[in-house]
Amino acid sequence: MPTEIIKDGDFSTMNITPKQVLTLAAKYIGYREKASDKDLYSFEDNAGRGNFTMFQAELDKAKFWNTPKNGYEWCTSFVAWCFYRVAGSEAKDILCLTGPYGASCVSWAKYYAGQARLFTKPQVGDQYFQRDSRDGLPCHTGIVESVNGNTFVTIEGNYGNAVQRVTRYLGSTVYGFGRPKYTAESEDEEMVRWSKIEDVPEGFYRDTVRQLMQDGIIKGKGNGVIDLTEDMLRVTIYNKRMVEMMLEK
Description:
Helix content is 30%, strand content 17%. By secondary structure, it is α+β, with helices and mostly antiparallel strands.
């Protein structure tokens, strides 16, 4: 976790990429919501279920939403805060917030849909919306960190009263994926690196990395650090298969 809270302007830039937003979001994994409006900048102190967080406090100070939100459900505020700290006042346009800026998942998904930016399949950097099993409407949200077939990993606020990394699956619980208006122009800018084996999405990818490490093909940098991207893994798998085919002949 960060040793200190990121100060204003540290991430300010006009070139907004998924990597920038996800790098910031990941720094706050483990942050717990507060029981009351104090110790907002501590990861653990005053932990409770009061729905008070540093994210809402900063957005309230900036008058980001139409009304103050500290003390209310905060999954949307975490997403908005990540973009706000990267893009400043441009965050609303990037996030398709063209209405009165209410903090509900229902309204936000409608804003994306109104600009033809709500999709059924995820990409890295998308905003994930969870479907409420009771009425079918979006009820929770997060940021897509990685995608592997029908599996995707998100970073979410207010998941178990904290910021957490969550593995999810395409299916009836998914309402859709809002696609922010990033300014990245190359695929490299959007790459997400897996630092350790635990960061690799569960299933085929993680099992494959484990096997490649056992075979000595992936050795990493020591102390469990593998520093791997999806493209690097795909190339490694392809090369391994090619060698195996040549040896079989």
